[in-house]
Amino acid sequence: MLNNAFEGYNVCLFAYGQTGSGKSYSIAGYPGNIGIVPRACKELFDQVKKGPSTLKHLIYVSIIEIYNEKVQDLLIPPKNRPAKGLAIREDKDKGMYVENLTQIPVSSYD
């Protein structure tokens, strides 16, 4: 996934499965045995550090959950989330996107 992202392609990690099947464990892991997302984030910033200093990288984080056909922004406190969830839109320039999704700029793995 990261190699494709560095080549300019959009990438997405999608976890799907029955409750209790290990999605959270696989995605987040736990201290001492980190999951897919922390590993990918660490590698992303390691690759940015190794790259040419003439390149500028803009890295943002967003986290969504799709549950009962509702898209929720997990970076918003639960009490502030819209009851109907967020809308998925399509734009000829942006492609598919989640309307009003929080995007936080990040500059390091930490």
Structure description:
The model has no long low-confidence stretch (mean pLDDT 90). The strands form four sheets. The chain has a two-stranded antiparallel ribbon. Strands 3-8 form a two-stranded antiparallel sheet. Strands 4-5 form a two-stranded antiparallel ribbon. A hairpin with a 2-residue loop joins strand 1 and strand 2. The chain folds into two domains: 52 residues, no CATH class; 53 residues, no CATH class. The protein has 110 residues and is α+β, with helices and mostly antiparallel strands. It has three helices and eight strands.
Brief description of this entry?
The protein has helices at residues 2-6, 23-28, 36-50; strands at 29-30, 33-34, 59-61, 64-67, 70-73, 88-91, 95-98, 104-106. The chain is of the alpha+beta class and 110 residues long.
Helical percentage: 10-25%
Q: State the secondary-structure class.
A: alpha+beta
Number of strands: 8
Strand content: 15-25%
Given the C-alpha coordinates, what overall shape results? globular
Number of domains: 2
Walk me through the topology.
Blueprint: H1 2-6, H2 23-28, E1 29-30, E2 33-34, H3 36-50, E3 59-61, E4 64-67, E5 70-73, E6 88-91, E7 95-98, E8 104-106
Antiparallel strand pairs: 1-2, 3-8, 4-5, 6-7
Protein traits:
alpha+beta; two-stranded antiparallel ribbon; two-stranded antiparallel sheet; 24% helix
